[in-house]
Amino acid sequence: MHTHAFKSLLMTCAVVALFFTSHTAGAAVNQLRFETDLGAFAVDLYNDTPIAVANLLSYVDSGFYDDTVIDMKGVLNANESPPIFPDADIIHGGTADSSLTVKPTGTPIINTTERFHSNTPGTFAMDEFFGFYAAQWQINVNDNSHLDGTLTVIGDVSKGMSVVDTIWGLDAYDVLPGVGDPFYNMPLEDLDGDTGTHLPSEYVVIHSVLRNGDTDEDDNLDADDIDTLYDNAGATDILYDIALDHGTSDAGDVDALVRDIFFTEYGDGNLDGKVNPTDLADLTLNWLGSNKGWADGDYNGDGLVNPTDLAELTLNWLFDNGLGAQTAPATIPEPASVALLALGGIALLRRRR
Ligand SMILES: [Ca+2]
Ligand SMILES: [Ca+2]
Ligand SMILES: [Ca+2]
Ligand SMILES: [Ca+2]
């Protein structure tokens, strides 16, 4: 084997390993988009914490988090004796609306079976109170692994961590003196230079939390969402700003949906993470058709299935995201499985020569 080919193989293995550790099996990721005063950030939810994720999504889909505030940063134990939590570098939300009225939640759930992810920097966790949680969440800004085993970490910030860091960097104030938790260490934009008056305009407001990529808003990620995104090219609604760069919806947003949410490439009509004979068969079936969509073989959104689409499929022929089938068990593969994947990589390299 040539050294270059071997290096490529190693890179392939590294990429495959990364995929498996950060995103286990499943072709698409549930990615939440948080739109704040200070910019947008995205959180990818893990599929091996399904109880916690289902709970969170129920709040997302009901609009619970829209017009809420970042109510706390860090955990100071000044008013907790004995302290409930050790100090931790977090930003916290999901408690109150932008007039600081605490929002009523559904029944808190007890779920101790999904506390196996570590509280590493950039991870997203449910805030528990004596083992219960409902809607309150937190993002670990720095390493909080001393909380491992006590909190359910269910995702990580995949885009816009600088926005989270900006919020973390804000000065915090006791906004409602005497009320205490949760507003005693609330980060504020401090527009008046800390005159002691904490204006509502200084609160860090989360205007909306939505399922990023679900452009047709049916709470499901599929090829219809790519078609809807193409149909809304040029729109400024954040629903179509998958890349979180604002402005008008463009090719970068389609790239973000295809690659960062479906983890695949152009040509994967059935969105199983592979570009292979199945997709070619679908394209062939619709060859030279019009009013077609992604699943039919129209990968550039012009409604036609023609040589342009075939060229895109050819470019990515035999692409495989390594995530397996959508229903595959959510496990990190044994070293032996990685070796098998490596063998697959060798086969791919040989075929490309
Ligand atoms: Ca959808
Ligand atoms: Ca955009
Ligand atoms: Ca496919
Ligand atoms: Ca086309």
Polypeptide structure, described:
The protein has 353 residues and is α+β, with helices and mostly antiparallel strands. It has a domain at 31-209: Cyclophilin (Beta Barrel). Helix content is 27%, strand content 16%. The protein has 8 helices and 12 strands. It has helices at residues 3-22, 50-61, 161-169, 223-231, 251-261, 277-285, 307-315, 335-352; strands spanning 31-36, 39-45, 68-73, 90-97, 109-110, 123-126, 132-133, 137-140, 152-159, 172-173, 186-187, 205-211. The protein has an 8-stranded antiparallel β-barrel with strand order 1-2-9-6-8-4-3-12. It has a two-stranded antiparallel sheet with strand order 5-7. A hairpin with a 2-residue loop joins strand 1 (31-36) and strand 2 (39-45). Helix 1 packs across helix 8 (335-352). The chain is elongated and about 70 Å long. The relative contact order is 0.15. Bound molecules: calcium ion (4 copies). One calcium ion is lined by residues 298, 300, 302, 304-306, 308-309. One calcium ion binds next to helix 4.
At a glance:
The chain is of the alpha+beta class and 353 residues long. Helices cover 27% and strands 16% of the residues. It has an eight-stranded antiparallel beta barrel. Strands 5-7 form a two-stranded antiparallel sheet. A two-stranded antiparallel sheet has the order 10-11.
Q: Characteristics of this structure?
A:
two-stranded antiparallel ribbon, binds calcium ion, 27% helix, disordered C terminus, eight-stranded antiparallel β-barrel, alpha+beta, 353 residues, Cyclophilin
